[in-house]
Amino acid sequence: SRVSLDGAVASGLTLDELELEYIRATLASVDGNKSEAAAILGIDRKTLYRKLEDTPEEPPAKLSRAARRE
Asked: Whole-prediction pTM value?
């Protein structure tokens, strides 16, 4: 799901929630390849794994379907 910054601000996403959405969008763009996603994000692969482990599976509740499509 793609989130615009305006949509994120309007829906009241926290920085942590926005970061998670960006990570998930990056992973989706590389068909789940975590090594490639980490390289694109400019973080170590272990950092990516840690960020994914520390977060719930569901997208942030504050984000509406319309905002995710922007």
From this structure: 0.70
